[in-house]
Design brief:
Blueprint: H1 3-28, H2 33-48, H3 62-90, H4 100-133, E1 140-142, E2 145-146, H5 147-164, H6 173-185, H7 191-208
Antiparallel strand pairs: 1-2
Helix pairs in contact: 1-2, 1-5, 2-4, 3-6, 3-7, 4-5, 4-6, 4-7, 5-6, 6-7
């Protein structure tokens, strides 16, 4: 077996393991699902891939700070009108005013998602797949999007489709491109991709409390 094939067999195995675990845990609502997926996405690459030695991957950088602020501000301002407009006009949803407790519950879900989704997903897809496995695929594909960011984002969207058996989950491909761009601007570090991932989750869970 060639070294190139060996290089991609382990990431493929880990990706399929994460997809299978996500699917069964979401389908059967297993209580341990919040611990198994982070284990697969964080610990398995570290212990099974001897060539993977992440260093300072979590530290913020000055290069990524301005981009993070700009994109985060734009999303907070522009996404809610699009979210409500689509659900109310296209899906017939009803806008409601939630209680303070319901809003707090939405924010809390977003915060919990940092530990069970944002951190492990960014570590696996950006730190491991994008910046380690696909490190040599750094040529531009379209605009600021590199090949490694494109491939990683396709895998990111695919695992969400497989996990929920819902093709609309492929829309996670688009925020994934931003996660990848934050990582590249930060010299391979994932602090801002985790932060933006967290902001996105909190915003999403909070906005859903206004929809019935």
């Amino acid at each position: 077996m060639s070294s190139t094939k060996k290089r991609f067999l382990l990431p493929l195995f880990l990706f399929l393991s994460a997809a299978a675990a996500s699917y069964f845990m979401n389908r059967y609502k297993w209580e341990g699902r919040y611990f198994v997926l982070p284990f697969i996405l964080i610990l398995l690459p570290v212990f099974l891939d001897r060539d993977f030695k992440p260093k300072d991957f979590w530290r913020p950088t000055k290069e990524g700070f301005k981009l993070f602020l700009l994109v985060t501000a734009a999303v907070i301002l522009l996404y809610p009108p699009l979210f409500f407009g689509f659900l109310i006009k296209a899906r017939g949803a009803v806008f409601v005013v939630p209680t303070a407790g319901e809003i707090f519950g939405g924010v809390l879900k977003g915060l919990l998602a940092i530990a069970v989704a944002a951190i492990p997903e960014e570590f696996f897809f950006r730190c491991y797949i994008q910046e380690h496995i696909l490190a040599d695929q750094n040529k531009k594909f379209l605009g600021p999007v590199t090949r490694k960011n494109l491939i990683t984002s396709l895998l990111f969207g695919l695992i969400h489709v497989l996990a929920f058996l819902n093709i609309t989950r492929m829309n996670t491909f688009f925020p994934s491109l931003l996660f990848g761009l934050f990582t590249e601007k930060s010299r391979g570090r994932i602090f801002y991709s985790i932060a933006f991932h967290a902001v996105s989750n909190i915003l999403q869970f909070t906005l859903w409390t206004f929809i019935e």
